[in-house]
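ingest -> validate -> predict -> emit
validate: passed (alphabet ok, no gaps, 219 aa)
predict: started
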Amino acid sequence: MSRKKTLSRKKKISLLVGAAALVGGTAVVMTGTSQASVACDGFATALGNNESFIAGQRSAPDAQSEARIANRVAVIEQIKVQQKASGCQVGEGGKGVLAGGAAQKPPVVKTPPAQTAPVNTPPAQQQPATGGANTGAGQVVCPGSTVTLFNEEGAPGASSGQFPVGTTLRVTNLDNSKSTTVKVTSTSASCVLLNNAAFEQVREPGKFLIRKARIERVG
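emit:
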């Protein structure tokens, strides 16, 4: 009888160890899946924004539309490379992009502007201004908007569907507290898009989308 009780206890211990290993493995898989999903969502949103811009240019073209479309096609190809490398569905665009070339409206945040958290970054950490002064508090615009890039070389600049050419905007990446101040040099279907040089000043390595951005009109 004593031998049988000992064997029973060993079996119970083995079962408990196996169950703990199973739970731990499940937690690791779920964590990895969650992180991959966030990355894929970011790529999909960036791709969708660029596809919406191209549709808008084709529905109402002007003298610069062909060049802008070529730039956006190059950006989309870069995003597809990142999607493939991250195990995402290649070519999947973000939801909510308007069809038929209509300009995509920035998402509306139902939070009073007073609740927008200021960037508590020492002035020394701010990126140097480009195309305008980078001093003083600006007017917060397009709350809740994400910011991506368009493939344009040259000095830091931006395109916008809400602000006229010549407007000075400051874009801050709240995930790394980097900011850049640029002038609007062309039109687009978004609140603001940064060209290659401007986006490099605020981007996080390997990312093509700023999910938490603060956009200010400073001039």
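The beta strands are 139-141, 147-148, 158-160, 168-173, 178-187, 193-194, 209-210, 213-217.
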